Amino acid sequence: MDETVIGSVLAVLAGKAVPYARPGALSAIDKHARNGRAAVGTLGLEGDEQGDPRYHGGPHKAIHLYAFEHYARWRDEIGPRQALSHPGGFGENLSTLGVDERTLCLGDRLAIGTAALEISQGRQPCWKLNHRFDQRDMARRLQNTGRTGWYCRVLQPGDIGAGDDIRLLARPYPEWTLARLVEAFYRRGLERELLLEIARLPLVESWRALIEKRLESGQLEDWSRRLDG
């Protein structure tokens, strides 16, 4: 398909891992805007860190993107918060304009700056968001609303800067928006035919294992530890 401009980058952000919320916990969720252009490699944005590499970072979670338009909706729902006053509140590396979970699909290939990215998965929100926003159910709110953000792997390293267009290079799974995946995972999570359909998608290994376990057990996994801490 021809390249189509579908959105733009508002800010490029990075953070350092620091002690967070409870003894022994680290987080780099507090991201700050980078000046100029930033190098992007297969493991992420230059200068960015992850607090818990068991759940963050790696080639399939190299870059986290979040729609800046969601910020206004969050302020309407939970009131003003310092973390909602500027991009980076959700730990995103790229704050975007014009695209979100309803308009992007699993497997979309995107050109941003001189880099090429591929959407690998949606975000599974965790308890650290509750502390970040001083809202005890914030992680559940992200999951329930579908305003989770999404991850990309890096197909072609390059550099990205604020103001860059987001161009759609390919859309192999147009029927599988990120919003539809969120609904399937969290609201219709035991519908067998739907799970079998999802299993045919190019899922990351952790999501595939989750689907296979649901198909085998007929039960949903317990989300309380991830969402509530």
UniProtKB/TrEMBL annotation:
SUPFAM superfamilies to which the protein is assigned, alphabetical: PK beta-barrel domain-like
UniProt domain MOSC: residue ranges: 32-169
Domain of life: Bacteria
InterPro entries the UniProt entry points to: Benzoxazolinone_Detox_Enz, MoCF_Sase_C, Pyrv_Knase-like_insert_dom_sf, Tri_helical_YiiM-like
Molecular function in Gene Ontology: catalytic activity; molybdenum ion binding; pyridoxal phosphate binding
Pfam families: MOSC, YiiM_3-alpha
The protein, known as: 6-N-hydroxylaminopurine resistance protein
Gene name tied to this protein: yiiM
